[in-house]
Amino acid sequence: MKIRDSEDVRYLLKKTGRRLNPNQRLVVLLYASSEQRPDGGVMEKASDLAETLGMTPAAFSRTRKELAAEGWLEAVENFGRVKIYRLAPAITKDRAGGHLRVVGS
Q1: pLDDT tens, N- to C-terminus, the chain (105 residues)
Q2: Cα–Cα 20 to 30 A to 26, which of 2, 6, 62, 77?
Q3: At what angle do helices 46-53 and 57-69 cross, to 10 degrees?
């Protein structure tokens, strides 16, 4: 799932409002707007993602773990101790077509 336009941003903001705290909402939006593999996994290093948001790596990691525990993110692959995360497909189940626009479509 990848953000393609302002409608997708507004959808995610509405979907996450009153459900997630501000840091969690930022992480969800960052994952939705990041370069993604075909399976939706974001390969960028957590420290780089944290820097983009102005968070410490520890705060980013904690927030990402919270989102994974709540079903907003899911790990799709492990490289040793490093996990690759993507937005959970269930986030967009109520979206027309069941998902945000797929990259390249």
Answers
A1: 688 889 989 999 999 999 999 999 999 999 999 999 999 999 999 999 999 999 999 999 999 999 999 999 999 998 888 899 999 988 877 766 544 544 433
A2: 77
A3: 100
